[in-house]
């Protein structure tokens, strides 16, 4: 019988925590659970921040978060799961980037943290307390890590790039006021 070490326990906790949070966020989008708005409400939001079509974008984000999070928590198909979740977090970070880094100001801190954790898990692997290990790592081969991360990076770049163009086109030609108008009495 093999003894599990601190690394395996640490990876299990990181997978369960990160995967659980992502799965819950995705369930908000897909099903309206945990106070979420479901596909309709999330789709409208996605459309309002430049991801079009909104409902398809909500579905893709929800599946990446729910599926990626669940698979990470289980330690199954870890490279693909981590990459999918990281792609969703990159999309979320793009929305929050204009607000700066810190989450208290609406920034991208939270999305970046989850994204980095998922990439770290994709690269490191799930540890021995995982379904990948139990199944002989058939869905967690070394070559799968760069392949999954590269495919996700390419897809995310296309989606976020299209969103950026939509947002810029909306604001093109509009100028913000240079000075605050003061009401005179």
UniProtKB/TrEMBL annotation:
A Pfam family for this UniProt protein? Answer: DoxX
Which keywords belong to this entry?
A: Cell membrane, Membrane, Transmembrane, Transmembrane helix
**The keyword Transmembrane helix is assigned to this record:** yes
What's its membrane topology?
Multi-pass membrane protein
The keyword Transmembrane is assigned to this record:
yes
One cellular component term (GO) for this entry is: plasma membrane
For this UniProt entry, which segments traverse the membrane? 71-95, 107-123, 143-162
The cross-references to InterPro entries, in alphabetical order and at most eight, read: DoxX, DoxX-like_oxidoreductase
Per UniProt, subcellular location reads as: Cell membrane
Record family assignment: Belongs to the DoxX family.
Specify the protein name: RpiR family transcriptional regulator
In which organism is this protein found?
Answer: Streptomyces malaysiense
């Amino acid at each position: 019988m093999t003894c599990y070490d601190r690394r395996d326990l640490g990876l299990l906790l990181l997978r369960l925590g990160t995967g659980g949070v992502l799965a819950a966020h995705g369930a908000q989008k897909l099903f309206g659970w945990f106070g979420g708005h479901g596909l309709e409400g999330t789709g409208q939001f996605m459309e309002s921040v430049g991801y079009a079509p909104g409902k398809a974008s909500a579905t893709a984000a929800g599946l990446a978060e729910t599926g990626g999070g669940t698979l990470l928590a289980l330690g199954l198909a870890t490279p693909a799961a981590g990459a999918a979740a990281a792609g969703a977090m990159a999309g979320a970070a793009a929305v929050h980037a204009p607000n700066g880094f810190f989450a208290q100001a609406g920034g991208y801190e939270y999305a970046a943290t989850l994204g980095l954790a998922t990439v770290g898990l994709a690269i490191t692997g799930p540890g021995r307390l995982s379904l990948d290990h139990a199944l002989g790592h058939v869905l967690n081969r070394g070559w799968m890590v760069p392949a999954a991360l590269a495919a996700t990076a390419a897809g995310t770049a296309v989606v976020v790039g299209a969103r950026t163009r939509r947002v810029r086109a909306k604001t093109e030609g509009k100028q913000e006021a240079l000075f605050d108008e003061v009401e005179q009495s």
